[in-house]
Structure prediction request, 115 residues.
Amino acid sequence: MTFNDRNLRTPSRLLMALPIAALAFSLAACGGSTRPSADDVAAGLDEFFTSQGQELPDGASECFAGYLVDSELSNETLTFLANGEDKQSSEADKALTTKILQDNLDECATPDTEE
Prediction:
């Protein structure tokens, strides 16, 4: 009979663990406190612009990503960008993202014309 008792307790233990596992997964999916790398943000920028039918010049996404990651943008906004989303976590982040892209446009998105 002891064997059967263990079998009855196992499903209830699993059911109790599911909400904890779901919470841990959802926190990980939100990005939590992990700051995306410049490579991740660059890949997300490329993905976003490609989905819009646009192509950035070679090296532009990496250039912009470096400035974005080194800024005071929240980890959440950087995670959105790394996922290829045009989304920011706040109006302040939206304004800062726009400013960073505009301020570095000449450096990052102007094709190199050296001969």
